[in-house]
Amino acid sequence: MASEEELFANIDALLDEEPQLPPPAERARLREAAGITQARLAQALELKSTQSIKNWENGRSEPTGSRLAAYQRLLKGWAAKYPPHGAPTVLPPAPVAPVAAPQPQVPNTFTGPTTPAAKAAAPVQAPAAPAAPKRPARPATRPPSTSRRPTAKKAATPAVDPRFPHGPLAVLDGDGSAYGVDGIVLDCPATTIPELVEWTLRESGLGAPKLNRYGKDSDPLMVLTAAAAVKLGLPERLEGHEQRRSLRLPEDHPVVKQVAKAKWQLTQRGFGPWARIYRKAQGRDRQCVQLAILSWDALDERSWPGVPEMEPADIARVLGVYAQRVITPRGSTAVSGLELMTALRPPTKPERDEETGNWISGHNPGSLGTEPMDPAPPEATPEHPVVVQSGWTGGFLNEEAYQWVRSVDSLSDEECMLPFAVGLDLNTAFLAAAARLVVGLSAPDHFHNVKFNPKIPGSWLVDLSHIELDPRLPSPFTPDGTRPSGPAWYQTHTVAYAQELGYDVHPIEAYLRRETGAYLDPWHDRLKNAYVDTLADLGVTKDLDDRAFLAAMEQHKQVDPALAAVLSAIKATVKGGVGKLRERPQGKHYKEGERWPALERPTWRPDIRAAVISKARVNMHRKLNNMAKMTGLFPLAVLSDCVVYPSPGASPLDFLPYAASGKPQPGGFRLGPTPGLAKLEGVQEMLWAVDLIEKGLNPARHIKGGDAVLDEGE
Questions:
Q1: pTM value?
Q2: DSSP string computed for 565-624
Q3: Residue 385 pLDDT > 80
């Protein structure tokens, strides 16, 4: 039973809490009942325009600081004079010195000071409330959105975390308006980067809750337009060879000096397009802000098509949806993809020390831990210290996506006479491959003359050159689709597929991992839901039949360009995140055999990348093989997750296998919005295959764009 003192302390804590404002509609009602215009109220509160009053009364933003206290006193006084219809009138008490006395009851309002003064003097013992966001008032002169797009169905948003009432991020424009999610406009008075960091942490109400119970909250993201960057003392562009090459400001730049003078720190990446500014955490409270400078190409056009040119409010909407469905951006989509893995599978969790009884940080089962792990030599890259220092010459894994074009000699007359080439692109094929994918969680062990076990993830040296398959299909064992010429290293899924095809496999040696788990499962689930939900918001839903699905896919980018950009970013997050598991050294000064920064991450795991790509390539070949058995059709080319078929018509409906009931045949390619199912690719995007076949060229040397490989950089 708690003591009287403990109970009184609990009650005092409730009394000290920040009083809440009434609902926005009630604020407007009280002002109108008092006969006060928005302009007069703005003047009394010393605001530069009426826009802030409008924002307060429609719920887009809230007052802070001294204006919050003054506004509360005013509304409390009005509430006593003008109660809701049908409620008894309660007159406010005469002004007296502050004493601990009970306040008159006011129906349907809130607890707070009662003096009805429009322009407040010093507030009466205004309680400190660190959790309440503060925003020094500046007029938000721009409407929350200027795009002329049709109204799309609004996605369901998660419950607002009271610690982060204004969402995960904001886009700051040159006039001090910070545009947040759901149309919120904040007033930011900062004129320097240190001031912006302080305001963001203490007054903005920005941030996002952790994605895993053992994880960390997402740091707030401030996106700077070109005008905002210039106002804060940054160059509009990174000019000069040295700055462009390193993508960061020099150490002697005035802004970098300002940050250091204010006792803030920059990460090793320095002050670049994605700058992280932090101080050492105080207890459990992180002190870190992520900046993104739009005019420094923070948002790559390939991943965020059209977004850098959007209005600030629309940029906030795009990034806000991505943050709510995926993660608050921490850098490129590749960086965000990798960060999402760690956020969903934190490396540590609290556990009690049996000797001391204290809580300590312990390993979180199923995660990759806190320390980097060297790969087996065949899983590494040629410049890796494991390879250089050991003198390894035994070959490497070559698990890459398909880049294959069919030999002209294998084309039949009937195929050559078909008038169309149709490309089928598998929706996020590498994401589908990550589902229920068992990968190694411990260091590799070396074995000789080991029996193959398809349930153990690892790398196997095995000879598959004796396996002869139909030359009209690519080999499932090599990225270029050619038949293996001798023993080579393969990931478990590739060797298991050889067994599935009915061939004996006898590994010569192997590097295997004893501790295993489905590390990527939560990553897959979150990105899959984000992808499917965003497609649904664009009108592409699971309940559409194939014809309606193709029609919806043809128009989905025009329905809402902002959500179409989110969809593109989600896809780039998948490919970039997988690719970054084997990030190569960058910079001309790198010397072979040296360690590079990416090797210090627990998520530098080329074996996991190989497992995803191996499974995706095997899945593709399985569908190709089934299509050939069911329809007699063979592909013209395969590029990564896209396959091109000759067709009598311009639609995949003209050649995909369907049962008599009209349902798609299982095992082959099927249309739909789910990852792993197919959609129609544009003719212009896929005619490259036909053109290369006619010229007898290798498509791997004539591919435009980054679709053929999984990006390993930023």
A1: 0.76
A2: HHHHHHHHHHHHHHHGGGPPP-STT--TT---GGGGSTT--HHHHHHHHHHHHHHHHHHH
A3: yes
